[in-house]
Amino acid sequence: KIKIDLLGKEVELKLSTKEYKISEIKWLLKYKSLEIANRIIKNIASALNIKLTDSLLRNINKQLYMRKKHIKELAMAGHEIGNHSHTHQAFCSLSKKELLTEISLSKEIIKNITGNEKQVFAYPYGGLNSFNDFTNDFIKKNNFSCCFTNTGFTNDNTTFLIHRTDINTLNLNK
Prior knowledge:
The chain is an alpha/beta fold. The protein contains six helices and five strands, in the order E-E-H-H-H-H-H-E-H-E-E. Strands 3-4-5 form a three-stranded parallel β-sheet, with helices on one face. A two-stranded antiparallel ribbon has the order 1-2. Helix 5 packs parallel to helix 6.
């Protein structure tokens, strides 16, 4: 067992095997920005008395996220690669300029990898504070085919507020 500071909250991890350590750490880092993920990795390394070099940190990051080649392989196999913003920030906390950058930059990156101009979009976090009329209009006007949210409702009049299930709310133990 180790205790770590998880962004201001002390958390106890029960790490019994190497495989469990890796899966537990990946779970902790899921949906976190790279900056936050790196802070968590550093806290875990410190708690485990592991000297964390920049090279080791880069290697860990490479194992956590899909690379361009993986995205390209999926797209070539017929999977639709959607857009979810560049750094997964809550849109309600961003200026219009930051918001446009989040959406435009990620769209351009995906287009450059897959060649697909038209993409689907899912709002980060997906709740009511994840979008507003400005973001919804921007998505509509910038060649996205549809947009998903997890607000609990679907607006039948638009393909830009389609309900999606937040995987974090699923009970997988049933």
